[in-house]
């Protein structure tokens, strides 16, 4: 029987729990894996094997005495059970000789959790081929491990945890001839040959820097910059064993001066252990469920990071559970749990355990400017847990959760006069449970949100929708500076204009930004259809005195191309987004190799599946409420495509359930309530466009601004008149008189050139009768305020 099977563990757990006698508690912790293991040297295979190994840590507790033993497991169920029983008997004989442990901390209430994380793992042959291709000409030395891992826990109290993940970890060094090296890794649950090749190429670039001649610096004060990986190593060294209650009170903490307030760091510095990232278990070796967030250093000071978990008891002579009157939660020691008690892991819901909402409510609010605190999570298992847990993270908690029901950041506090009143703990527990019910729907989303924000390097889960024709780099800069992800639309720009906009954007901000492209297939010219289209517009031409014969035909918008990428690549945009699907694989490959985060719009679940399968790192779920062009691409016939599309809050949960990549909600979201609703339905972030149209940084025309501020903005429709593809805008004269979805309009983007002279004629007269007044169905959030202020308002007050 396989050591990673649930059936095997349950049999082992039943045997261990049955051995407990009166006054005893028995437990078993299983660690098992079945992995492909490959070792490389000089980009060639040195060793290839399959590893299946497992061991069980069994423990026996009586009073304040606890003994543990480790048993290697063979997978032969009966033989392994016999070994475990023998080990328990040995531990029982040892217990009388042990001293009491005043710091022993065990759960008093059964806790349950379960996680199954399936991955898309590469075969050994695929890994070898990828390494040989990506490391050609490099001295590549490292290893690859890939396969399922199991962590499981059970005790005689009734606690059960099961944690099964499938992931990979590839770790390597690239060596220089002078024995200098660059260390890199790639870990996760979804293998990508392109992403792996990009990591190798990045390491090769760093290796080339080592070949440069060193420069001698004179003694003095210099500002030094550390990579996230280097900072993580430093923090890991400081944090190991530095935050546990036991290590502090016994004087073994590495951070005693910080703990005693003899030293402080900058108030901008924060250190957070976030258990939502990676693939480590959501429980400790003693069976506690791990909190989702543990603050270790807050505002430059030691957080005294005791593990907060009701249902735990400090097992010390004569000591009862104590209450923390400030937070309204029971305080239990973290013992020597590294870094305050939590690697990354799965969420859990302990039976009878008080809410952890108060810990979340005490977390700092969202930053309002570019000098926001740096929050770095620490720790993690090998493989994806360590890789994910090391990067910088700015955690987002929805505004209604931060505020709670008792005012900002106060919903779980205790009035000083009530701290010792009979029944206060029970009332506090009920108060926290009420708040936790509001938090439950947001907690999983918070994990998704944190991961996406970490990957994009943004402080707020707000993406500005790229809006060609009504914005330039200034709007993107304002949103990025406020902590969101600003976007620059490139579909209507020449290569020269695009280069100029990117130069201006880069000069104005160092924050992350997105560059957006259309990736449509230009249609073949259709002279008959274009003639029919001009004939439909003939009455308007006559009114305006325009000679239709003088109007040049033109494509209007160019799709993404190799030349486009050659222009954009030197600016290294952190994110690239596409509308109308994804470009051809040969065009997308260099974008992926650059490390840019690829987003694309989907209007149906089928399109979301397609985007995920073809390389999108995140999917934008575009609801029917959205302004501007619909992003559909699998069905280009409007009559059938639009019947399959739905509103944002109907589409969003279906896409979230269908794909593994992050999902961004778009369409009809214009205020903090809409953002919170989208996040509660599983969105990792939101994309907002229409709300920015009245901001001073937008280039929205006076006619367009007037329409948005009028009653006309309440009437929008999808129309093909302005470009040939369905797009939502405010209904105007030409839409009313020709009908918004006119079958005569040529295919995208050929319809644009024929109507453009009418637009110019009308706008010179101050009229928007022939202008595309793009807007979504919810214009209620449009405000003439700075874009940065609007961006921050979308997540509510901090």
Model description:
The strands form six sheets. The chain has an eight-stranded parallel β-sheet. 32% of the residues lie in helices and 21% in strands. The model is unreliable at 305-425 and 431-444 (pLDDT under 50). The chain is elongated, with a radius of gyration of 30 Å. The protein contains 24 helices and 26 strands. Helix 3 packs parallel to helix 4 and helix 13 (495-508) packs parallel to helix 15. It has three domains: 6-207, PmbA/TldD fold, CATH 3.30.2290; 228-444, no CATH class; 462-793, TIM Barrel, CATH 3.20.20.
Helix content: 25-40%
> From the alpha-carbon coordinates, what is the Rg to the nearest angstrom?
30 Å
**Ends apart, CA distance between termini:** 54 Å
Here the CATH topology of the largest domain equals: TIM Barrel
Overall average residue pLDDT = 79
In CATH, what is the class of the largest domain?
Alpha Beta
Strand order of the largest sheet: 16-24-23-21-20-19-18-17
Question: How many separate structural domains?
Answer: 3
Biggest sheet features: 8 strands, parallel
Under CATH, the homologous superfamily of the largest domain reads Aldolase class I
> By helix and strand content, what is the structural category?
alpha/beta
Could you say which overall geometry the principal axes of the C-alpha atoms support? elongated
Reported CATH architecture of the largest domain: Alpha-Beta Barrel
Summarize the entry for a quick read.
Helices cover 32% and strands 21% of the residues. It has 798 residues and is of the alpha/beta class.
């Amino acid at each position: 029987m396989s050591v990673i099977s649930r059936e095997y563990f349950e049999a082992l757990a039943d045997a261990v729990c049955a051995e407990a006698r009166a006054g005893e508690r028995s437990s078993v912790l299983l660690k098992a894996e079945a992995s492909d293991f490959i070792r490389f040297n000089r980009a060639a295979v040195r060793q290839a094997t399959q590893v299946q190994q497992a061991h069980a840590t069994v423990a026996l507790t009586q009073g304040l005495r606890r003994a543990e033993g480790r048993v290697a497991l063979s997978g032969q169920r009966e033989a392994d059970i016999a070994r475990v029983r023998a080990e328990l008997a040995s531990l029982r004989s040892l217990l009388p000789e042990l001293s009491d442990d005043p710091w022993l901390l065990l759960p008093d209430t059964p806790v349950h959790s379960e996680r199954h994380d399936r991955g898309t793992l590469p075969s050994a042959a695929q890994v070898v081929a990828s390494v040989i291709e990506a490391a050609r000409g490099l001295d590549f030395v490292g290893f690859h491990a890939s396969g399922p891992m199991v962590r499981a826990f059970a005790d005689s109290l009734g606690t059960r945890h099961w944690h099964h993940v499938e992931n990979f970890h590839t770790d390597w060094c690239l060596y220089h001839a002078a024995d200098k090296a660059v260390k890199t890794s790639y870990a996760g649950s979804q293998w990508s040959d392109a992403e792996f090749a990009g990591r190798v190429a990045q390491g090769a670039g760093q290796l080339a820097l080592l070949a440069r001649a060193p420069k001698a610096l004179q003694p003095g004060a210099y500002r030094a910059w550390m990579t996230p990986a280097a900072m993580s190593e430093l923090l890991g060294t400081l944090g190991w064993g530095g935050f546990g209650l036991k290590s502090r009170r016994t004087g073994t903490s590495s951070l005693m001066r910080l703990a005693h307030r003899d030293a402080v760091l900058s108030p901008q510095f924060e250190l957070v252990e976030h258990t939502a990232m990676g693939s480590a278990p959501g429980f400790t070796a003693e069976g506690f469920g791990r909190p989702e967030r543990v603050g270790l250093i807050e505002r430059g000071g030691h957080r005294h990071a005791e593990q907060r978990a009701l249902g735990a008891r400090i097992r010390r002579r004569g000591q009862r559970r104590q209450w923390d009157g400030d937070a309204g939660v029971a305080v239990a020691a973290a013992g020597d749990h590294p870094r305050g008690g939590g690697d990354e892991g799965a969420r859990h819901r302990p039976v009878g355990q008080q809410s952890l909402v108060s810990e979340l409510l005490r977390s700092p609010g969202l930053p309002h400017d570019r000098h926001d605190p740096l929050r770095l999570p620490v720790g993690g298992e090998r493989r994806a847990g360590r890789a994910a847990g090391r990067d910088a993270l700015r955690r987002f908690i929805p505004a209604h959760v931060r505020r709670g029901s008792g005012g900002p950041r106060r919903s779980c506090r205790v009035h000083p006069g009530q701290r010792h009143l009979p029944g206060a703990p029970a009332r506090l527990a009920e108060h926290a449970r009420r708040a936790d019910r509001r938090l439950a729907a947001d907690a999983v989303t918070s994990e998704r949100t944190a991961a996406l924000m970490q990957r994009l390097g943004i402080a707020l889960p707000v993406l500005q929708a790229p809006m060609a024709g009504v914005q330039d780099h200034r709007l993107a800069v304002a949103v990025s500076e406020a902590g969101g992800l600003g976007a620059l639309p490139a579909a209507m720009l020449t290569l020269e204009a695009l280069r100029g906009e990117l130069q201006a954007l880069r000069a104005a901000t160092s924050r992350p930004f997105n560059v957006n492209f259309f990736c449509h297939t230009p249609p073949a010219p259709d002279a008959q259809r274009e003639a029919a289209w001009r004939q439909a517009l003939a009455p308007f031409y006559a009114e305006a005195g325009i000679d239709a014969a003088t109007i040049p035909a033109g494509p209007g918008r160019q799709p993404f191309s190799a030349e486009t990428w050659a222009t954009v690549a030197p600016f290294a945009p952190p994110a690239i987004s596409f509308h109308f699907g994804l470009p051809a694989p040969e065009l997308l490959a260099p974008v992926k190799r650059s490390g840019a985060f690829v987003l694309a719009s989907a209007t149906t679940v089928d399109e979301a599946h397609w985007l995920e399968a073809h390389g999108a790192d995140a999917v934008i779920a575009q609801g029917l409420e959205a302004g501007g062009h619909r992003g559909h691409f699998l069905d280009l016939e409007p009559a059938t495509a639009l019947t399959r599309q739905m509103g944002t809050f109907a589409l969003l949960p279906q896409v979230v359930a269908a794909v593994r990549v992050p999902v961004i909600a778009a369409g009809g979201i214009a205020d903090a309530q809409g953002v919170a609703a989208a996040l509660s339905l599983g969105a990792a972030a939101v994309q907002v466009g229409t709300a920015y149209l009245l901001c001073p940084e937008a280039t929205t025309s006076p006619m367009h601004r007037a329409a948005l501020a009028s009653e006309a903005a309440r009437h929008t429709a999808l129309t093909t008149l302005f470009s040939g593809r369905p797009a939502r805008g405010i209904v105007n004269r030409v839409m009313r008189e020709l009908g918004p979805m006119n079958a005569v309009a040529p295919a995208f983007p050929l319809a644009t050139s024929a109507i453009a002279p009418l637009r110019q004629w009308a706008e010179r007269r101050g009229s928007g009768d022939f202008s595309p007044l793009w807007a979504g169905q919810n214009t209620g959030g449009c405000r003439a305020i700075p874009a940065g202020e609007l961006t921050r308002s979308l997540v509510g007050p901090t």
